Amino acid sequence: xxxxxxxxxxxxxxxxxxxxxxxxxxxxxxxxxxxxxxxxxxxxxxxxxxxxxxxxxxxxxxxxxxxxxxxxxxxxxxxxxxxxxxxxxxxxxxxxxxxxxxxxxxxxxxxxxxxxxxxxxxxxxxxxxxxxxxxxxxxxxxxxxxxxxxxxxxxxxxxxxxxxxxxxxxxxxxxxxxxxxxxxxxxxxxxxxxxxxxxxxxxxxxxxxxxxxxxxxxxxxxxxxxxxxxxxxxxxxxxxxxxxxxxxxxxxxxxxxxxxxxxxxxxxxxxxxxxxxxxxxxxxxxxxxxxxxxxxxxxxx
Length: 301
Known about the structure:
The chain has helices at 37-48, 67-77, 94-105, 126-136, 166-172, 189-192, 205-215, 236-239, 243-258, 264-277, 281-297; strands at residues 11-14, 25-31, 56-61, 83-88, 112-115, 121-122, 142-150, 156-160, 185-187, 220-231.
């Protein structure tokens, strides 16, 4: 068996069991102070109960969390040989947590890295579906999917669909982030080439990473079938304003520059969205609902 991996002075590994001899699939999640036990439980169990579960499921406790979540994670870690906990000495954000998982698992030579958020729920065949597609389409480096948007009680509110083909995805980068981050599966050779999440980014880190990967020639695709239930919680529209809006604006400008998508139309769109995101939450909610409706009317290839 592979020995327990060492960590740096910002993270401490907790593992009852040694790592399996062969690790092909790694799933990464982080948990922090604002997460709820009910949602964390649903999220983790949706990964562990997959038709093809990950060989290694690493959950980073990003700084202090509630006592009930801490007790739950300690208990369930002892029950599953493929589950490992990583304790962050302090809260460092999603980028640092995911980068740490990537860095300490690279020596294991895995094939695929799956993202998961602590308040979402995987469809039970998500991993199987994405693994089979990545095995079949060796040219695809990053594979996302559509998702169900659900409210705080788990009721479905609609489907978020995005372009399916690499060509359509590439064209979309200057307008929107065309990959649903918590649905993504990434080939590890992407990380072997040195790519990582930007640690300085506390949001939109995925958007900037996708642009860097697209600029490096990586190929993207999305699965048409929704493979995840995405929690749209209260305050969702408020949180999409201000700081995140500015970062999204910066990402759009970067995509225009690096991917040769500069145009008056794209610049005007970026400015319009930035202005819209500074408006009251009810206007943002109305615009977001209309955007989802128009996206779902389109037939993506």
